[in-house]
């Protein structure tokens, strides 16, 4: 009997998910002879038994599509005992030989728990935030960096023409990868990331100096999770409302607007804020993400075929390899100090 392999996508959607799904369904059928069963809406789909077969024919045409044909959710099945039991019960009912969970740290934390409970699980790391441990890069990130970079480039023309400062809020949760790479690629005047808390007065002084030098415009790339230095020596995030998802993550957002307002009040420089928001996750995946997603999908199918469970497909250097899930998967992979320092090195305002 052919192996039955379930596939689900959980957490925020991201470009490249369909490339992974396609590679699993095609390699599963053609190389390894297993049947791929799509589970819709992430872990919610296991709780509600939302499944459909995925044949090579079903996935033939999806690689260039953003989002996920399987849909997604932020459902946390371990949130309470009842749903955790239903998760186990339904996984048994689905009669799967293995499950491939494609997702970020939250989705993979569930995959890790299930694997420790004895289920045959393989993970694939996705997210535009690039903050998943055990891999050098997640797919989806490249597309998002390109969108953010192009947006910063575009905003420069308005900043220049109107002699304005524009504060651009960029996603990434508590990791600054997206802001760092897009901010430096676009030559932003300040790149503010969570790993390097910033002081508002210092930022304002820099802007005033730049305007006084005759260059009367600026672009500030700021992470949604950037941290403001406080007077007591600590630092904190700035959020508009305290709203938490099922995994306990606070919904970030609002720092761009708050910083723009403070700059205008403190310096008198005309300042606007722009939130790139979900535009960073949408649309067509870059060729890099389609290719990385394809390689991840192929590796996940291979891990299942070899019975190498409890692993994720991971990029190490230029190789995609299977890496055992450990407690490290529960941690956020943030920007290391040597890269965080680049925000200062490339800061054009002295
Ligand atoms: O994790 C991906 C991400 O886009 C984060 O950068 C962002 O903070 C969050 O998801 C937004 O979540 P939602 O789509 O639920 O608003």
The hetero compounds bound to this protein are:
6-O-phosphono-beta-D-fructofuranose
Determine the CATH topology of the largest domain: Rossmann fold
Mean pLDDT: 96
* Top CATH class of the largest domain: Alpha Beta
Biggest sheet features: 7 strands, mixed
- Rounded to the nearest angstrom, the distance between the terminal CA atoms is 68 Å
Range of helix content: 25-40%
Low-pLDDT stretches are: none
Q: Give the strand order, joined by hyphens, for the main sheet.
A: 3-2-1-4-5-12-13
Number of helices: 12
Q: Topology as H/E string?
A: EHEHEHHEHEHEHEHEEEHEHEEHH
Descriptive overview:
Helices cover 38% and strands 18% of the residues. By secondary structure, the chain is α/β, with parallel strands linked by helices. A 7-stranded mixed beta sheet has the order 3-2-1-4-5-12-13, with helices on both faces. A 4-stranded parallel beta sheet has the order 7-8-6-11, with helices on both faces. Strands 9-10 form a two-stranded antiparallel sheet. The longest helix has 22 residues. Strand 4, helix 5 and strand 5 form a beta-alpha-beta unit. Helix 1 runs parallel beside helix 10. The chain has 2 domains: 183 residues, Rossmann fold, CATH 3.40.50; 142 residues, 3-Layer(aba) Sandwich (Rossmann fold). 6-O-phosphono-beta-D-fructofuranose binds next to loops.
Offer a quick outline of the entry:
This protein has helices at 17-32, 43-47, 56-59, 81-93, 105-116, 141-162, 177-185, 200-212, 255-267, 287-305, 337-340, 342-345; strands spanning 4-9, 35-39, 51-54, 98-103, 121-125, 165-170, 190-192, 218-223, 228-229, 235-236, 271-275, 311-316, 319-324. Helix content is 38%, strand content 18%.
């Amino acid at each position: 009997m052919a192996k039955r392999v379930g596939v689900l996508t959980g957490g925020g959607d991201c470009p490249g998910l369909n490339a992974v799904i396609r590679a699993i369904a095609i390699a599963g059928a053609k190389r390894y002879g297993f049947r791929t069963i799509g589970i819709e809406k992430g872990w919610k789909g296991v709780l509600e038994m939302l499944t459909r077969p995925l044949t090579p024919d079903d996935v033939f045409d999806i690689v260039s599509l953003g989002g996920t044909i399987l849909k997604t959710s932020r459902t946390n099945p371990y949130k309470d005992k009842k749903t955790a039991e239903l998760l186990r019960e339904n996984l048994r009912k689905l009669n799967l030989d293995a499950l491939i969970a494609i997702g970020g740290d939250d989705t993979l934390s569930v995959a890790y728990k299930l694997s420790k409970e004895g289920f045959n699980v393989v993970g694939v790391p996705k997210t535009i935030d690039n903050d998943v441990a055990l891999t050098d890069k997640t797919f989806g990130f490249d597309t998002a960096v390109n969108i953010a970079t192009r947006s910063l480039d575009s905003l420069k023309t308005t900043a220049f023409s109107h002699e304005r400062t524009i504060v651009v809020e960029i996603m990434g949760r508590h990791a600054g990868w997206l802001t760092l790479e897009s901010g430096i690629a676009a030559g932003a005047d300040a790149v503010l990331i969570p790993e390097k808390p910033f002081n508002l007065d210092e930022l304002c002084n820099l802007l005033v100096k730049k305007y006084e030098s005759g260059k009367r415009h600026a672009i500030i790339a700021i992470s949604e999770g950037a941290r403001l230095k406080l007077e007591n020596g600590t630092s904190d995030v700035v959020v508009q409302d305290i709203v938490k998802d099922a995994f306990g993550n606070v919904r970030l957002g609002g720092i761009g607007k708050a910083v723009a307002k403070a700059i205008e009040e403190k310096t008198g420089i005309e300042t606007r804020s722009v939130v790139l928001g979900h535009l960073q996750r949408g649309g067509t995946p870059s060729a890099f993400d389609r290719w990385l997603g394809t390689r991840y999908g192929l590796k996940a199918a291979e891990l299942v075929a070899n019975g190498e469970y409890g692993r994720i497909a991971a990029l190490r250097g230029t190789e995609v390899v299977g890496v055992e899930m450990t407690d490290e998967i529960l941690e956020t992979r943030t920007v290391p100090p040597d890269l965080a320092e680049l925000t200062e090195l490339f800061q054009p305002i002295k």
